[in-house]
Amino acid sequence: MTNIPATYESSRERFRASLDAISNLWADCRFISHSLPDNPDLTIDVLSADATREKQKLLIITTGLHGIEGYVGAAVLQLFIEEFLPRLDPETTGLLLVHPINPYGMKHRTRVNQNSVDLNRNFEEDFESLKPLNSHYESLGYLLNPARPLNHPHYERIAFLWNMMKALPKGAQHIRETALMGQYRVHNGMYFGGFEAQTETKFIQQTVLNSTSDYAQVVFLDIHTGYGPRWQMTVCNPPSEKMTAKETATRFGLPLVVGVNPEEFYTIHGDMVEYFYKMVTSQYPDKKIYAAAFEFGTYGDSILNGLRSLRTTVYENTLRWFGGHNVAREWMKHKYDELFMPSDSKWWQKAELDARQAFEGILQAEGYLK
């Protein structure tokens, strides 16, 4: 993929420059820049354009919900702008492109925002009622949330394996669900969903709500990295999607589709794609919507790579909260970058092919491409 940004700032500059390309096709193209209250230099940027004749179809593409994943997201978004944007019909199709939802995380190369909240666990309404969820999280604290500075990598590799062996009698599926579903009690823990809706969450909720009301059809695509096979992007349907994974794959001509459920993926509370799918279908039952996440796998989906991914996620969180050994810091920075933005050029080339195939299949089947 030739569109890889080096920094948050260069990525933002390129995205803003796309306004000209969109304005050439959509006369009513708007740019919105929403600054974070505590850091005005960090912005959520939105390019939107309404259909010029009749509001039939709306395409929404969001990136950087998990900040560090915004680098791949920005490259995929640039590919869309260069190759697929000219194939849309401005007379009947509107656009909403977002870069990135979590600018703090993208700038600082972490998944969470400035409050250490995982924004893809934050799209909820009643946070008080969520506190009892994932009741087993604290019981695995020794594995998932070690409250101590990070030591030398040699020590930490052994410590993680030892803690995993202690946890294994509970079952691999139990560990996976407890680690990944999200939790709403431990503010310095992994996948913390927050005690309240975050600024970024509120802004995106309102932006999407304002955009969708007048359109008969919506396609909503959110770009992520980390999960799934290393050499095949996974399309993830939200739990409320009525099409099965197999039906979706057949309809769009895609090799790998999963539903976001414990059998095919894992349980998520506060998931953004699910939130908007349910919002649109409940408020506008006559609208047609397809919503999904693109997951570009990085480490891979073997058991060993799953353990590596969990270890990297645990220790990045540990380092962020409790600091650690300088060698461990450099070790974890490299591992964390590789988990969400691999350095292998062949990986990027395959990711580009997968993104192109998914855009082609979904947008063609949904009637968006000329």
Give a description of the structure.
The protein is of the alpha/beta class. The protein has 2 domains: 8-124 and 200-298 and 344-365, Aminopeptidase; 135-180 and 303-338, no CATH class. The chain has helices spanning 8-17, 19-23, 70-83, 103-108, 141-144, 153-167, 172-180, 199-212, 245-252, 272-283, 303-322, 326-340, 345-365, and strands at 29-36, 39-49, 57-62, 93-99, 217-226, 234-237, 257-259, 288-297. An 8-stranded mixed sheet has the order 1-2-4-3-5-8-6-7, sandwiched between helices. α11 crosses α12 (326-340). It is globular, with a radius of gyration of 20 Å. 46% of the residues are buried.
What does the secondary structure layout of this molecule look like, with pairings?
Elements: H1 8-17, H2 19-23, E1 29-36, E2 39-49, E3 57-62, H3 70-83, E4 93-99, H4 103-108, H5 141-144, H6 153-167, H7 172-180, H8 199-212, E5 217-226, E6 234-237, H9 245-252, E7 257-259, H10 272-283, E8 288-297, H11 303-322, H12 326-340, H13 345-365
Parallel strand pairs: 3-4, 3-5, 5-8, 6-7
Antiparallel strand pairs: 1-2, 2-4, 6-8
Helix pairs in contact: 11-12
